[in-house]
Design brief:
49% helix, 204 residues, 7 helices, alpha+beta, single chain, Jelly Rolls
Length: 204
């Protein structure tokens, strides 16, 4: 299994450098599992995402087949703050840094995204510009899900919109709090530096 994983990563890396995107070639397998009523083993990663908890096995398998798997390299942003977008990303492997640029141009890290987490929900669900820049800290495997992929799910389960709306509101509140804390820390650091300069100047 370990050898297969290394080979899979090597193939994805080569495709990345060749500027080739790939989709998961799982449609036949997915359809077989839909007929049997069992969850496609390749769709199990979606079951761990809170955003999709209300979906059936068949719906998860269908969404997994539509998702586009990508290897993104460390240091190269996947999304940039304020740019347009209409998709979200599920992290399958890796770690990503989340940063926000303040009005004064200062860039603050407000968190990290790890395997099993998602980012880009607001862009997918409301069409809002990206709220932050997300950059892999290490080579990272993600799956992208677009508005077109998820639209049929809302048509079949309109109640999901209420649950997701509450989840998004909570996440936005957390991000805002972290940004305020980062600004307060920076202000305290600057104040301390000025105090030290004054003391040094007067040799106190």
């Amino acid at each position: 299994m370990a050898d297969q994983t290394r080979i899979h990563r090597a193939v994805l890396r080569n495709l990345f450098y060749a500027n080739i995107d790939i989709a998961q070639p799982r449609m036949n397998l997915t359809m077989q599992h839909q007929q049997s009523g069992n969850l496609d083993v390749n769709a199990g990663w979606l079951r761990r995402v809170a955003l999709f908890e209300g979906l059936s096995d068949n719906e998860l398998a269908r969404l997994s087949a539509q998702a586009r798997e990508q290897l993104r390299l460390a240091g190269q942003p996947i999304v940039q703050q304020d740019e347009p977008g209409s998709s979200l990303f599920v992290v399958k492997e890796g770690v990503l840094d989340v940063t926000i640029k303040g009005e004064d141009g200062t860039i603050s890290q407000v968190g990290q995204v790890r395997a099993g987490h998602v980012f880009g929900k607001m862009s997918l669900l409301t069409g809002a510009p990206r709220g932050a820049t997300v950059t892999p800290a290490v080579d990272t495997l993600v799956a992208e899900i677009t508005k077109e992929d998820i639209e049929p799910l809302f048509q079949n389960h309109p109640e999901l919109i209420e649950d997701i709306g509450a989840m998004l509101a909570e996440r936005q509140s957390e991000t805002s709090t972290r940004l305020q804390q980062a600004a307060a820390t920076q202000k305290a650091d600057e104040s301390g530096a000025l105090v030290n300069r004054i003391r040094n100047f007067f040799r106190l």
